[in-house]
Amino acid sequence: MLSYNSLRIVCPFRSLLHPNWLMTNRQTLTCSAHCVSNNLTKKDTWQRQNNLKPTGNERKLQYSTYAASSPRNYGTGQFKLNCWNCKQPLDQTPAFFCMTCKAVQPPEEDISLFNIMDCDYKFSLDTHKLQKRYLHLQRSLHPDNFSQKSVEEQEYSESYSALVNKAYHTLLKPLSRGLYMLELKGMVIEEGTDSGADPEFLMELMEINEALDEVKTPEEANKIGQHTKGKLAVLTEEIDAALLKGELQSAKALLAQMKYFANIEEKVKEKLSEFM
User: Fold this and answer.
1) In which element (H, E) is residue 237 found?
2) Per-residue pLDDT, 37
3) Domain ranges of the chain
4) Which residue, 180, 143, 146, 136, is CA-closest to 161?
5) Which of 10, 63, 233, 259 could form a disulfide with 204, with the two C-beta atoms 3.0–4.6 Å apart?
6) Is the CB of residue 17 less than 8 Å from the CB of residue 211?
7) pLDDT at res. 91
């Protein structure tokens, strides 16, 4: 059970918005701290679970995995892909277009989203560069550009355009980017009941959510929002350091915490929209 002093640490929002709240609700808080792990909804909890997937470096294109029915072709004695249209070798990866006939190509199987967006495989990314790459690829691969082309090129442009869109939105935000990096390492975080979460952390989350439900002004919501942004910034630095050191379990636990605070950040935005 959490002590009164502990509650003063993990309940900054009620005391910030309503100075006398902590003294008048001490007994209720103590009970809540004892029961909090059973009262959180599934939406805001995570279950640690590993999938038995291949581990190692990020996924790279394995040319030998294509089925015989693939539109791609192979040169005899080579492991490079050939253009589906002119049969010339494709030397670039990813190969969006054939350099010989200029035909748009189908997406390679299992290609990394980092590879598509021409990003280094790391948690800390230049999002400005990511956006520029996204806009360039979408202009080049948009299906409207291939309305007068063959059916194959129309289909491939649609597939690549959708894949580029997925890559951009996955890598843009730290949470989805980090989860994808763990996925490439064979680790998955799924939603569920996290019975092993730290009680003080769970208590803090409950207090933030309850305080947010009770805010009366945009200023009160903004105070919680600024605190949440600070938490996310610290977590981002800690996750980056953990991944650089190869400490995947630590990164996994930190990403679970980031997911909670990302949910709160969205709730703050919803609350602010109510005041508009």
Assistant:
1) helix 218-244
2) 41
3) 4-51+196-274, 63-184
4) 143
5) 10
6) yes
7) 83
